[in-house]
C-alpha cells in the first residue's frame, strides 16, 4: 500500500474555477502519491479565464484544464476513486453534487470566485483567495499518514479539514 497512488476527484457545480484549481494544486503538492481530477455536476463547458491566468502565474501547465461532466468518472475505464471532495459553497446556497459509491468523501466548501463582483482586481483577488484556501486544505490532507490511519479516524480528519479556518492550518 505504500506505493499506492490515490485517485482524488474534486467536484463543483460548474467545473470552471475551484475544482480546476484543486486539481492543479493536488497534482503538484501530492505528486507521486495522488492523482487528481475534477468535474462538475453542471459543467460550464469552459474553464474561467481568471482560473487559467492564476494557474499560469503560479507556473502551472494549464494543458490539463477542461470543464467536464462528472458522468465521465462513472464510465467504464474511468479511474477508481479513493477520495471525492466537494468544493462548492453551501453558505451561498449553492447545491453540491453528491457522489455515490465507496470512495471517502468530504465537503471542503470554498466561495465561488467566478461569482465575485467588483473591480477586476477584486475579482482576481477572489480567485487568489480560493487558491489559498484550497492549497491550505490540500497541504493538510497530503500530510496525513493515510497508510496508518483507520477509515473512521480518516473520515473525521477529512471533515475537520473542511472546517479549517484556513488561517491556522490545524485539522
From TrEMBL:
The keyword S-adenosyl-L-methionine does not apply. Residues 6-144 form the Phosphotyrosine protein phosphatase I domain. Keywords: Arsenical resistance. The keyword Mitochondrion does not apply. Signal peptide: none annotated. CDD domains: LMWP_ArsC (cd16345). This is Arsenate reductase ArsC. It comes from Hoeflea alexandrii.
Amino acid at each position: 500500500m505504500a506505493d499506492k497512488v490515490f485517485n482524488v476527484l474534486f467536484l463543483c457545480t460548474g467545473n470552471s474555477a475551484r475544482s480546476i484549481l484543486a486539481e492543479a494544486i493536488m497534482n503538484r503538492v501530492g505528486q507521486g502519491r495522488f492523482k487528481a481530477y475534477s468535474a462538475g455536476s453542471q459543467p460550464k463547458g469552459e474553464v474561467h479565464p481568471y482560473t487559467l491566468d492564476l494557474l499560469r502565474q503560479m507556473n502551472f501547465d494549464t494543458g490539463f484544464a477542461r470543464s467536464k461532466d462528472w458522468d465521465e468518472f462513472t464510465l467504464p475505464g474511468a479511474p477508481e476513486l479513493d477520495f471525492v471532495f466537494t468544493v462548492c459553497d453551501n453558505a451561498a446556497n449553492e447545491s453540491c453534487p453528491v457522489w455515490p459509491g465507496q470512495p471517502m468523501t468530504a465537503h471542503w466548501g470554498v466561495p465561488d470566485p467566478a461569482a465575485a463582483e467588483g473591480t477586476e482586481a477584486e475579482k482576481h483577488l477572489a480567485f487568489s483567495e480560493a487558491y489559498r484556501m484550497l492549497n491550505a486544505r490540500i497541504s493538510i490532507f497530503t500530510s496525513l499518514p493515510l497508510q496508518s490511519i483507520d477509515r473512521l479516524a480518516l473520515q473525521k480528519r477529512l471533515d475537520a479539514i473542511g472546517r479549517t479556518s484556513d488561517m491556522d492550518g490545524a485539522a
